[in-house]
Amino acid sequence: MTRVGRLELRVPQDRAGRFSTELFERYQRSEKALVAALAEMYVQGVSTRKVKAIIEELCGHAFSASSISAINKNWTRA
Questions:
Q1: Burial track 13-24 (b if 16+ CB lie within 10 A, e otherwise)
Q2: Over 70: is that where the pLDDT of 52 sits?
Q3: In this predicted structure, which of 12-21, 25-34, 67-76 has the lowest mean pLDDT?
Q4: How far apart are CA 9 and CA 21, in angstroms?
Q5: What CA–CA distance (Å, rounded) separates 34 from 77?
Q6: What's the pLDDT score for residue 57?
Q7: How far is CA 68 from CA 3, 23, 63, 65, in A?
Q8: For residue 62, which of 42, 34, 33, 36 has the smallest C-alpha distance?
Q9: Cβ(11)–Cβ(19) under 8 Å?
Q10: Could you tell me the sign of the dihedral formed by the alpha carbons of 43, 47, 53, 56, in that order?
Q11: Which pTM does this prediction carry?
Q12: DSSP letter at 10?
């Protein structure tokens, strides 16, 4: 998931299985800037319900409430 919505990427396969891209970390599912924006909303006291609505409006795809809570939990540990 990115700030512009969902992207479908085709990842090339190599025989040795060593291909890696410099655009994303391995198994990264969301753009770091988007996750940082979610964390900022949390810090500013925006409710999970409002965050979910904002992300749906911006990206055309909603994170589940549990995903938003998990992201927030990771930020409170850091």
A1: eeeeeeeeeeeb
A2: yes
A3: 25-34
A4: 11
A5: 19
A6: 81
A7: 15, 23, 7, 5
A8: 34
A9: yes
A10: positive
A11: 0.50
A12: P
Closest by CA to 6, choosing from 51, 63, 71, is: 63
CA–CA separation, 72 and 9 (whole Å): 27
Residues 6+ apart with CB under 8 A from 49: 65
Q: Which DSSP helix (H) or strand (E) runs through 52? A: helix 48-59
SS3 5: strand
Count CB atoms within 10 A of the CB of residue 68: 20
